[in-house]
Specification:
Largest sheet: 4 strands, antiparallel
Number of strands: 4
Order of helices and strands: EHEHHHEE
Shape: elongated
Distance between the termini: 14 Å
Structural class: alpha+beta
Radius of gyration: 15 Å
Length: 119
């Protein structure tokens, strides 16, 4: 399976279990790896036979900016399910970063990584 990757998609969302997270929001970062067969697209140089990663990026940002959820696990699942709606995409790996998580000790990042497929 071939891979198309989008890294570092940024959007402000209001996800989290604490009232301050819901009220103030924070920046979330999303990385995607889309698994698909790119041979049909490359054989005919045809965008319609692959995934339009610009559209996927816009959809991901809309989800992050959209309806708040408590858990980044839920956010990652919503993103994965949206990616799988694209016909060419057979598998997706989603990493959601929450670098502004409300943790009381020094840290670099908090992430959830999920992989979903049509199978």
């Amino acid at each position: 399976m071939d891979r198309v990757a989008l890294r570092g998609l940024r959007a402000r969302g209001h996800h989290g279990v604490f009232p301050q997270e819901r009220e103030e929001g924070q920046t979330f970062v999303v990385d995607l790896v889309l698994g698909l067969d790119t041979r049909p697209a490359s054989a005919g140089d045809d965008l319609a036979k692959t995934v339009h990663y610009g559209v996927v990026a816009e959809e991901v940002v809309d989800i992050v900016q959209g309806e708040p959820v408590d858990l980044i696990e839920t956010l990652a699942e919503r993103i994965a399910q949206q990616c799988l709606k694209h016909g060419a995409v057979q598998e997706v790996e989603v990493v959601v970063h929450k670098p502004g998580a409300p943790i009381t000790v020094p840290f670099d990042d908090v992430t959830i990584t999920i992989t979903r497929s049509r199978v």
